Amino acid sequence: MKTAPERVANEGLPSADLAAATEEDAYRQKRAARSREIRIRFYVDRTIAIVVPLVGWQMLSDHWVGGKWISSPLSVLDRLISMARDGSLQMHTWQTLEEALVGLLCGLVLGIVIGVLLGFSKRLSDALDPIIMGFYSLPRVSLAPLFIIWLGIGLLAKVALVASVVLFVVLFNVREGVRTIDRELLDAFRSMKASRSVMIRSIVIPSLVPWIFASIRIGIGMALIGAVVAELIGSSRGLGWYVMHSTGVYDMAGSIAALVVLMILAIIFNWVLAVAEKRTLRWRRSADIGLVT
User: Fold this and answer.
1) pLDDT tens for residues 159-191?
2) Sign of the alpha-carbon dihedral angle for 169, 172, 174, 180
3) Maximum alpha-carbon separation in the chain
4) d(CA 108, CA 98)
5) How is the chain split into domains, by residue range?
6) In 152-238, where does DSSP find H-type helix?
């Protein structure tokens, strides 16, 4: 691949253009080197951030506290391997994952629908605000026994608890996102006789996308917490149940292994969400540029 000066020389352009092309090529090389340096520094920092706590944890369990009170990383890794071999890791992980994902989806859908309605109707929002804040202030743990009585001890009760945890976070974010929509832009679309579907597709959805992603980012952790709480109260499997069972028999390696799996799930969810958000917001920026031009 030819550099900018070589292309200019082959085309027989003036020396001023050759100097400009040389400067442009040097700038691109410098920018690429800077980008590589930042990327390498990022991976080094990330590696240090992972390795140093693990080493400290191992030393803490071996020399200062002892494995009686906190298991070592090697013991946790050995437990995870043994659980994966006998299939219990997959079973408990899938149980918690199913509860968290289904509950997150239900809370997300309900929160978006109610948030949009309250965002566009200030009168309705003002009327329901005390009731919503009252339900929001209720501790979710206190609702778990009621969900079990109403819906049984199966998946449905746990999904309901997770959805109740996620619902209000999404609702508040979406309602605020609707209120920040540029009203002058909506009026401009109305003056051009734009249909409701066009305004929703061109204005409402692009404006709400960042708020929805922010809600999901917070809701991921809350969904996992809700699933674990539900399993602690009434379940016979799942990562939350495994933590409670392991702690009851003084199995520190088992308890910490389940917590590590929960942390890994949260990291994976957030990584997937970050990738989806990056691609979606790139689409949103393209749509905004097309709208302006």
Assistant:
1) 999 999 999 999 999 998 888 887 777 777 777
2) negative
3) 84
4) 15
5) 4-64, 73-292
6) 155-179, 183-191, 196-199, 205-233
